[in-house]
Design goal:
With 179 residues, the chain is an alpha+beta fold. The chain folds into two domains: 16-73, no CATH class; 85-172, 3-Layer(aba) Sandwich (Glutaredoxin). Helices cover 45% and strands 12% of the residues. The protein contains seven helices and five strands, in the order H-H-H-H-E-H-H-E-E-E-E-H. The chain has helices spanning 16-27, 33-45, 50-60, 64-73, 93-97, 100-111, 155-172, and strands spanning 85-90, 117-118, 124-129, 140-143, 146-149. It has a five-stranded mixed sheet, with helices on one face. A hairpin with a 2-residue loop joins strand 4 (140-143) and strand 5. Helix 2 packs antiparallel against helix 3. The chain is globular, with a radius of gyration of 19 Å. The protein binds FE2/S2 (inorganic) cluster (FES). FE2/S2 (inorganic) cluster (FES) binds next to helix 5.
Length: 179
């Protein structure tokens, strides 16, 4: 039976599970293979909803609590969907006192989401983070993996830049791959 509890369209008969099953079969006997399996699952699904964690636990004969423990221990695993571009506003002390809160508010206004949420088109994730080690540049925002020194007024241009980047990437794909 097909069920989906995550609200993001991952059902138990999702065809991506076949690829995940094949991968689990190929690494199952290797020590420490759970991490590899979780990486593969996140690569396939974009994040690790409960359905995916349950499938992994069942197939690898590991208690679900153990799978969940590993997923929540490592920052690199996401249990919530993420956008194509992650925007992470540093709220460490140096950035905070130099206006990071206003920058965060401006991104929230521009994108129509709050910190911790993803835009409806799944293009942007808005997040906050702690000090990223660039205090001399404060306030900074990690934009798609790149640390940038930003002012509140820069926010619309950053969003427009990423939208344009996404459009260009879509245009560079073969017609058959466009959605
Ligand atoms: S507090 Fe933001 S980079 Fe250090």
């Amino acid at each position: 039976m097909s069920t989906c509890c995550c609200g993001m369209g991952v059902t138990t008969d999702d065809p991506r599970f076949a690829e995940l099953d094949a991968f689990m079969a190929s690494v199952r006997e290797q020590p420490g293979s759970l991490i590899s399996v979780l990486h593969k699952a996140q690569q396939l699904f974009g994040f690790l909803p409960e359905e995916v964690e349950s499938r992994i636990a069942h197939t690898m004969s590991i208690p679900l609590t153990d799978v969940y423990g590993v997923v929540t221990f490592y920052n690199l695993f996401n249990t919530q969907p993420v956008g194509k571009y992650a925007i992470s506003v540093c709220m460490g002390t140096a950035c905070y006192v130099r206006g990071a809160g206003r920058i965060l508010d401006r991104f929230a206004e521009e994108l129509g989401v709050q910190a911790g949420q993803v835009t409806d088109d799944r293009l942007f994730s808005l997040e906050v983070c702690r000090c990223v080690g660039a205090c001399s540049l404060a306030p900074v925002v990690v934009v798609d993996g790149e640390v940038r020194q930003l002012k509140e007024a820069d926010v619309p241009a950053v969003v427009a830049e990423l939208r344009q980047r996404s459009e260009l990437e879509a245009l560079s794909q073969p017609v058959s791959a466009r959605s």
